From TrEMBL:
One of its GO terms (biological process) is sensory perception of pain. GO terms for cellular component: mitochondrion. InterPro entries: Dimeric_a/b-barrel, NipSnap_domain. Signal peptide: none annotated. This is NIPS1 protein. SUPFAM superfamilies: Dimeric alpha+beta barrel. It comes from Pluvianellus socialis (Magellanic plover). The lineage of its organism: Eukaryota, Metazoa, Chordata, Craniata, Vertebrata.
Length: 158
């Protein structure tokens, strides 16, 4: 009886658990072929912000509506707090990384988009992109009619 109790008691503490080999981002995100998001941060020269907004309003919706490009413009806005004179664009690529690569390769051949990038580059101080995987427990972001206020947060997984 005492040996049975001892082995039962030891079984509480002796369990060997194999460590996870997957990255946290893989454990928390949806499948690789689900949506991939790209968020672009463009720091615009203060004197160019109106011209920048006009230019992007002319070109970016065309990419969004063109069925040949597997991307959707989910959101488009300027910041009020934090970085001033900053434009943010949120793109969704249906089909994950393969869709992103397909879209990027097609854009390299699109003369109107290349002209847009050249004109846009004259208005920018800096730019930064991030690729974002969907969390499996969050709903998909949907475009909303504005004006709206958004809060951007960053999480660092440990």
């Amino acid at each position: 009886s005492r040996d049975a109790e001892g082995s039962w008691f030891r079984s509480l503490f002796v369990h060997k658990v194999d460590p996870r080999k997957d990255a946290h981002s893989n454990l928390l995100s949806k499948k690789e072929t689900s949506n991939l998001y790209k968020i672009q941060f463009h720091n615009v020269k203060p004197e160019c912000l109106d011209a920048y907004n006009s230019l992007t309003e002319e070109v970016l919706p065309k990419l969004h509506s063109d069925a040949d490009y597997p991307c959707d413009l989910v959101g488009n806005w300027n910041t009020w707090y934090g970085e001033q004179d900053q434009a943010v664009h949120l793109w969704r690529f249906s089909g994950g990384y393969p869709a992103l690569m397909d879209c990027m390769n097609k854009l390299k051949q699109n003369k109107e988009y290349l002209d847009f990038r050249k004109e846009r580059s004259r208005m920018l101080l800096s730019r930064r992109n991030q690729l974002l995987l969907e969390f499996s427990f969050w709903n998909e972001p949907l475009p909303r009619q504005g004006p709206n206020i958004y809060e951007l947060r960053t999480y660092k997984l440990k």
